[in-house]
């Protein structure tokens, strides 16, 4: 019974560590793609969609040695071969980092500055039938035109521009279906923006403190870090992680029921031996401690062996890529101390509780045994 109990703890501990490390890998993998288009800091106007990028602002950023880019993001309708979709169009300038471009570009090339070119997501390209460098069937972008007066034709309410798809990017399913990159100057023309108007200033260099930036821009601007820019994604990942913690904690509870049952069965089986211990001078408290320490020993030793076994499997996955998501992408694994500590404390705490309950049961049943 003790062997079966410790095997259950080993398997559940190893499984919990492997799943948590796998989820950490998927989380890091997802956030890598988000970081490719999310700057360290995004500075935007507190009111309105745009603000003027003044020489004073440019001088301040250059004085602080910050790598930055300018962007404007809005919604638009794209159309090709009678296929239409509403997407987010993000106009960026030359400040958008080359390393980000290299990490997301799936096919073709990045758009040329000053040209009517776009880079579209893989999902939208597939669904709408968009091909790179297809001059015969260009994509048409439609955006609402601001203004008043009588509407007599499509041109009175919509600005449009034929654009060439120079490349395709791949980030995640949502962005692949809903995001398009193009030149900031083209965005200004489409949306009738002023020459120095921008939607945001994107800081790509590491910023240790935002105090100077906040003091310079003041209350008229909103400054968001990478987490604040992607609150929905982070909340979703944290919720999923909490659910995994909860589910596998319940699995550990089930495994420790084996420990509880094994110790109870052992107490029933060793009744005569327990009477002998009492006759030899042992106290009820000492007999209870025997079962308590045995349960705790099963839990702790099973946890260590399980984590060792799970750790070896994780190392094999990192080195040999045993499990694959696709033919070219191995299942990502991340070693985190938090995962090891979580598994250890969950198993030990629940094992402590199970052992204490068994010890209490044995101590309560010993007087009845001794009277027979």
Q: Can you walk me through this structure?
A:
The protein is of the alpha+beta class and 372 residues long. It has helices at residues 2-37, 55-63, 98-104, 122-128, 173-178, 184-190, 211-217, 226-229, 231-269, 271-279, 284-320, 337-370; strands spanning 41-45, 51-52, 68-80, 83-92, 105-108, 117-121, 139-144, 158-169, 179-183, 197-198, 200-203, 221-225. The protein has two domains: 2-32 and 233-370, no CATH class; 45-226, no CATH class. Helices cover 54% and strands 20% of the residues. Strand 3 and strand 4 (83-92) form a beta hairpin. Helix 9 packs across helix 11 (284-320) and helix 11 (284-320) runs antiparallel to helix 12 (337-370). The longest helix is centred in the last third of the chain and has 39 residues, at 231-269. It is elongated, with a radius of gyration of 31 Å. Residues 368-372 have low confidence and may be disordered.
Task: Sum this structure up briefly.
This protein has 372 residues and is an alpha+beta fold. The chain has helices at 2-37, 55-63, 98-104, 122-128, 173-178, 184-190, 211-217, 226-229, 231-269, 271-279, 284-320, 337-370, and strands spanning 41-45, 51-52, 68-80, 83-92, 105-108, 117-121, 139-144, 158-169, 179-183, 197-198, 200-203, 221-225. The strands form 2 sheets. A 6-stranded mixed beta barrel has the order 3-4-9-6-8-7. The chain has a two-stranded antiparallel ribbon with strand order 2-10.
């Amino acid at each position: 019974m003790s062997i079966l109990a410790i095997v259950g703890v080993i398997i559940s501990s190893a499984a919990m560590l492997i799943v948590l490390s796998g989820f950490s890998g998927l989380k890091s993998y997802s956030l890598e793609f988000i970081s490719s288009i999310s700057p360290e800091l995004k500075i935007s106007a507190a009111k309105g969609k745009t603000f003027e990028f003044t020489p004073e602002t440019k001088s301040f950023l250059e004085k602080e040695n910050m790598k930055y880019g300018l962007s404007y993001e809005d919604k638009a309708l794209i159309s090709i071969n009678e296929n239409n979709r509403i997407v987010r169009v993000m106009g960026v300038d030359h400040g958008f980092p080359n390393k980000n471009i290299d990490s997301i570009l799936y096919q073709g090339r990045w758009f040329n500055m000053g040209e009517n070119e776009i880079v579209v997501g893989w999902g939208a390209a597939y669904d709408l039938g968009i091909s790179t460098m297809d001059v015969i069937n260009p994509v048409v972008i439609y955006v609402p035109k601001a203004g008043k007066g009588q509407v007599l034709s499509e041109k009175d309410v919509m600005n449009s521009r034929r654009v060439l798809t120079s490349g395709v990017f791949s980030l995640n399913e949502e962005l692949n279906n809903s995001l398009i990159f193009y030149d900031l100057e083209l965005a200004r023309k489409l949306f009738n923006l002023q020459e120095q108007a921008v939607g945001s200033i994107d800081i790509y260099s590491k910023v240790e403190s935002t105090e100077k930036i906040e003091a310079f821009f003041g209350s008229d601007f909103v400054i968001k870090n990478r987490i604040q820019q992607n609150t929905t994604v982070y909340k979703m990942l944290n919720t999923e992680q909490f659910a995994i913690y909860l589910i596998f904690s319940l699995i550990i509870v089930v495994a420790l029921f084996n420990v509880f049952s094994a110790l109870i069965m052992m107490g029933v089986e060793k009744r005569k031996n327990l009477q002998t211990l009492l006759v030899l001078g042992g106290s009820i408290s000492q007999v209870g401690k025997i079962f308590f320490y045995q349960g705790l020993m099963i839990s702790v030793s099973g946890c260590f062996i399980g984590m060792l076994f799970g750790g070896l499997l994780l190392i094999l996955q990192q080195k040999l890529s045993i499990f694959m998501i696709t033919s070219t992408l191995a299942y990502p694994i991340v070693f985190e101390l938090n995962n090891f500590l979580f598994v250890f404390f969950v198993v030990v705490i629940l094992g402590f509780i199970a052992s204490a309950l068994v010890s209490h049961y044995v101590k309560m049943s010993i007087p009845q045994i001794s009277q027979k």
